[in-house]
Design brief:
heterodimer; A: 97 residues; mainly alpha; 67% helix; B: 156 residues; elongated
């Protein structure tokens, strides 16, 4: 048992202790303690008020991803486009045309 | 990769339409239920990858060229950013949801009722991103599988 194994075991013990403490400190499933932020987000994404920039969508996650944070989705689409362009550029010379 | 046995090909052909319809359902109801353009597009691309594995990459490449898939992917990207620019030109804000609030096209109020004619431009953006993800993921898998087959046959 060399020094690396001792260090790995020490690190693992620390992480395990924190995980166990975290598991005991979680509140029970389904019992929401503070829901003010959730209510605010759901109310404002489902409305169509121009004052609050309501998106009018039932799915609040889609409203956030495609409306309020559209730039993030645009970046993800650009990443996918770059991946496709790179793959086609690398494998183009292997075609038999 | 070469094509698999006749049983695998038949079962893949039978289950392919159902997987595609499920993926298109996830895309179309992206503003109502969990999921959206990315997730539904990944489902449809998985169905296309199943066809690729069952029928072989040569057959699939003969049926659908990767140039057409690239055109589809670019159409999705142009649609997505075009909707964003329409919001800029009509309302002065990039990514403005310019269709919400009107009474004729996807402009109803949601209120948790599951009405599909809600959310303004979000269904169109879901469709554009779904088209982009379908074509993008499938062209990656198709080109890499075809290149592997060509390399195994010794062509350079």
């Amino acid at each position: 048992m060399n020094k690396r194994d001792v260090a790995a075991a020490f690190f693992f013990a620390i992480v395990a202790v924190f995980l166990i403490f975290g598991a005991f400190m979680m509140h029970p499933f389904g019992e929401i303690e503070e829901s003010d932020m959730d209510d605010y987000i759901i109310r404002n994404t489902q409305s169509i008020d121009a004052d609050t920039d309501g998106a009018g969508a039932d799915n609040a996650v889609t409203a956030v991803v495609f409306d309020y944070r559209g730039f993030d989705t645009l970046g993800e689409a650009t990443v996918l486009f770059t991946a496709v362009a790179g793959v086609i550029m690398i494998f183009r010379r292997l075609k038999d045309d | 990769m070469t094509e698999m046995s006749k049983i695998v090909r038949t079962i893949a052909g039978v289950t392919f339409p159902f997987a595609v319809i499920f993926g298109l359902y996830v895309i179309a109801h992206g503003h109502l239920t969990p999921g959206g353009g990315f997730q539904g597009g990944a489902i449809v691309a998985s169905a296309c990858a199943m066809i690729l594995v069952a029928f072989g990459s040569k057959w699939t490449m003969e049926k659908i060229k990767e140039k057409r898939l690239s055109v589809l992917e670019s159409l999705g990207a142009i649609g997505f950013i075009g909707l964003a620019f329409i919001g800029l030109f009509t309302s002065g804000v990039f990514f403005k949801n310019f269709l919400v609030g009107n009474n004729y096209l996807f402009g109803n109020e949601a209120l948790g009722k599951g009405d599909i004619f809600t959310a303004g431009v979000l269904p169109f953006m879901n469709f554009a991103v779904g088209l982009k993800v379908i074509a993008g993921l499938f062209v990656i898998v198709l080109v890499m599988a075809y290149a592997t087959t060509m390399m195994k046959e010794g062509k350079k």
